[in-house]
Design brief:
homodimer; alpha+beta; Nucleoside Triphosphate Pyrophosphohydrolase; 4-stranded mixed β-sheet; 5 helices; 17 strands; globular
């Protein structure tokens, strides 16, 4: 197997969690003799040095977000957040793709860790990124927030769901709002996107106009949902006592979606 | 195994290609005794009848678009285009996921064909949808079009590439334009999306502003590329003799991307 150059560096991880040093992701020199087949190339740093992750995952590793993995976004520069996200998604994907889904034979990492190949049947397998829509329905100056059964008490957020084969982003937004809350929408507008590497989603944040505020909840998915006005959203984002709900954390795209909606409907107290 | 109700209908396919009858997708009654485990539920028609697809795929079936599969978009209603796209993506996915990527054991279709389960290790596997960015870089009234080596002579289109783990839509647009054409962009703007079930992409169409028109092509990916002005795009979309390139077909999101750009930069001759 080819060896990798000795200027290369390797991301230090604690399981799937990041390790931080002085405001950056912790790195170490890639050991001489490291096997390229056990590593994924994550990118090139500003000094031209390649950055690798060891593909040391285990299929049973939880892909769920942890305080350390969520918190890194506020600590390291944006390009390092992307490096960490890619590492986390790739390690988890490799750990769960040791075998070929076409024929059941073992696969091996190729293309600097961005693919796996099956020598038995010749199939190539690629890491997946799952598009997810996350959206606010808007009706007469209020937006819809809901909560899942498993969330901490008081936490509400934008509704969300996977984009299914055969549909557009806009159709996925309309389908999910109708399936989960019984709300019919039009005029779906894209606002922003965010990778969510737990394990490998692409969050696509949208706002849509609801024709009616009647709710019919799918109670297997959604425990509760309600329409909240700009004052309520402002109080929740500011984490005020007496806010009508507890907002998602500022690193979540749902926080920004609520913030962007608020900026669009009402001047903030600071700018008024 | 559970049987499905006898009002149900089944999509008639020719391999992975659609079959059309009187402006609609051809359907047949689901045979009595059909095994739900061999079928995927695609949706419910306007009469409340479930529509299924037989999971009759083979791993070697080509996922590539054919004249019949591309053309169906102009023949049947939009909701049937979505049904066909879902059927095509699901059949191809099931055919290539008969084995568990975690442990190599056989898997079986569950959840009405929207998942596969491994009884050996307990893993659940879900159909994938791959987000792809497709984009125009714009510079002083011109946009960048390029061609791949395999395309028909004269055909040019918007550049495109898969969104990678760890990046936003906007970062993917900037990375792909830089990697494939050496063009640096800012102000990435989302325009529209389209499912592309060959086998299972979600095309995310954007426009971005280039700072410079110098090109450095990645010739493994792009055979040629050039900047074209509004007159050239108009001639190409109208399929005029003497147009500077042959545009993608009107069913492709790239056609609409060029058309939307044109509508934004210059009044059309008809509306002027």
């Amino acid at each position: 197997m080819p060896h990798v150059c000795n200027r290369a560096r390797r991301l230090i991880l604690d399981g799937l969690d990041p390790v931080e040093r002085d405001g950056h992701l912790a790195m170490e020199p890639l050991p001489s003799g490291a096997d390229a087949a056990d590593h994924a190339l994550l990118g090139i740093d500003r000094h031209g040095r390649p950055i690798f992750a060891a593909l040391h995952g285990h299929p049973a590793m939880s892909p769920n977000a942890t305080p350390a993995s969520r918190g890194i976004v506020d600590i390291v520069p944006a390009e390092e957040v992307a490096i960490y996200g890619a590492a986390r998604s790739l390690i988890h994907w490799h750990a769960r793709h040791g075998f070929c889904s076409v024929c059941g034979a073992p696969t091996r990492a190729v293309k600097a860790g961005w693919s796996r190949h099956c020598d038995a049947c010749g199939a190539d397998h690629f890491p997946r990124t799952d598009p997810v829509v996350i959206m606010l329905a808007e009706h007469r100056g209020r937006v819809l927030v809901g909560r899942q059964h498993s969330w901490a008490q008081g936490r509400y957020s934008a509704l969300a769901g996977f984009v299914e084969p055969g549909e557009t982003i806009e159709e996925a937004v309309a389908r999910e709002l109708f399936e989960e809350a019984g709300v019919r929408v039009r005029d779906v507008r894209y606002l922003m996107s965010q990778p969510w590497p737990f394990p490998s989603s692409l969050m696509i944040a949208c706002i849509a106009q609801a024709d009616d505020d009647a709710l019919t909840l799918d109670e297997t998915e959604i425990e509760a949902a309600f329409w909240v006005d700009a004052d309520g959203v402002r109080a929740a984002l500011a984490d005020e006592d007496g806010a009508p709900f507890q907002a998602p954390p500022p690193m979540a795209v749902a926080w920004h979606l609520l913030d962007r909606w608020l900026a669009g409907v009402a001047p903030s107290p600071a700018s008024a």
